[in-house]
Amino acid sequence: MLKTFYQTELIEAGCDEAGRGCLAGPVFAAAVILPEGFYHEKLNDSKQVSEEDRYELRSFIEKNAVCYQVASVDHEEIDRINILNASFKAMHLAIDKLEKKAKFLIIDGNRFTKYKRVPHQCIVQGDAAYASIAAASILAKTYRDDFMRQLHQEFPNYKWITNKGYGTAEHRKAIEQFGLTPYHRRSFNCTSTQLELEMD
Question: Alpha-carbon distance 73 to 87, whole Å?
Answer without folding.
Answer: 8
